[in-house]
Amino acid sequence: PASPVSFSNLTVTGGELSTSYVGAGIAGSDATPITLNHVTVTGNAGGVTGIGSDEGGGVGGNGNLTILNSTISNNSLQTPTANVFGAGVDWTDSGPGYTLRIVNSTIAGNVQKISTGDTGLGSGIYASGNPFSKVVILDSTIADNTARGTSASAFGVGLDTTYAGTVALTNTIIASNHSPSGVDNCQADLTPSAVTGAGYNLISGADSSDCGFFLHGPGNRLVANPKLTQLGNHGGQTNVLLPRKHSPAINRGGACRPPRTDQRGLKRRYKRCDTGSVEVHPRRRHHRHHHRHHHH
User: Fold this and answer.
1) How far apart are alpha carbons 144 and 126 in whole angstroms?
2) Which helix (H) or strand (E) holds 178?
3) Neighbours of 12 (CB within 10 A)
4) d(CA 192, CA 253)
5) d(Cα 269, Cα 280) in Å, to the nearest integer?
6) 47-69 pLDDT, tens per residue?
7) Partner residues linked to 228 by β-bridges
8) Cβ atoms within 10 Å, residue 261
9) pTM (2 d.p.)
10) How far apart are CA 84 and CA 118, in angstroms?
């Protein structure tokens, strides 16, 4: 396999592909191991002008792919005559059992524009593998990804796994991902025995039953509204979705695990972490002290 490649503390934007290829922003082939840490991959566009499937608007890889403390946002895919896969992250295990690992990261606002009669899978994350592949998603937020198109089909707009071996989802939010026909958060092509993970996931929306497949372990919840802000700068190097006041994500995750910091590098608090990539820190109230002056 190729030598490992690491990206840290940078933004990858403005990448464009006009042929059938994987990863307009960051692409790995020949099973290159790729690691992203504190990286933003945003505003990259994949678009096939001829015939051929279109994959990976943001990050594409076919070996071990590790995404840490990073945001994959607002990447797009479109094609006039073919199916589309993975506008945010497109991962295909090309070997005997590689791992897609996403920790403390945000996958949001990625868009697939699907041509009439065609299909889109995994606007946020598309993972395809074999019985030995592993998909591990921990302390992350997958939200507001969309698939658009007239008379087009879309499945697993947030997360789509196809023959992906085992999938472990822990302390992660999957919410408000939309297909042309409504909310569509997840699709799984797995056997139940292939699902692991430590629970405490937060799933929102009408198709939560599709995500139910991923819910292994205690503390999983299906909610109507996760109450997240829009993607924005809420401290740290990367834009995130911050849980609002009274969000069901706050203090309802599992026990805090190492590294005990959130995507922004802020400390995870209390015995129960917040679900998703961000730990909310309540604003400190400033008390004004009025000193009485005594006149002698």
Assistant:
1) 15
2) strand 178-179
3) 21
4) 23
5) 9
6) 544 434 455 667 878 889 999 99
7) 243
8) 16
9) 0.88
10) 8
Looking from the CA of 174 toward its CB, the CA atoms found within 13 Å total 36
DSSP output for 31-98: T--EEEEEEEEES-EEE-SSSS-EE-SSEEESS-EEEES-EEES-EEE-SSS-EE-SSEEEE--SSS-
Beta bridge partners of 73: 42, 108
Q: Are 81 and 115 in contact (CB under 8 A)?
A: yes
DSSP state of 243: B
Query: CA-CA-CA-CA torsion for 21, 214, 36, 178, nearest 10 degrees?
Result: 60
User: Which phi and psi (to 5°) does residue 209 adopt?
Assistant: -65, -30
Of the listed ranges 130-134, 141-145, 235-239, 287-291, the least confidently predicted one is 287-291
Rounded to whole angstroms, how far apart are CA atoms 230 and 108?
Answer: 9
User: In terms of pLDDT, which residue wins out, 233 or 92?
Assistant: 233
How confident is the prediction for the chain on average, in pLDDT? 82
> Cα 277–283–287 angle (5° rounding)?
165
SS3 at position 198: strand
What was the pLDDT predicted at 31? Answer: 78
**Is 156 in contact with 120 (CB distance < 8 Å)?**
no
- For 86-233, where are the alpha helices, taking DSSP H only? 208-211
Going by C-alpha positions, the residue among 244, 250, 281, 276 that lies closest to residue 263 is 276
- Burial zone of 76 (CB within 10 Å; 0-12 exposed, 13-18 middle, 19+ buried): buried
DSSP SS3 for 135? strand
Residue carrying structure tokens 């822990």: 170
156 touches 186 (CB < 8 A)? yes
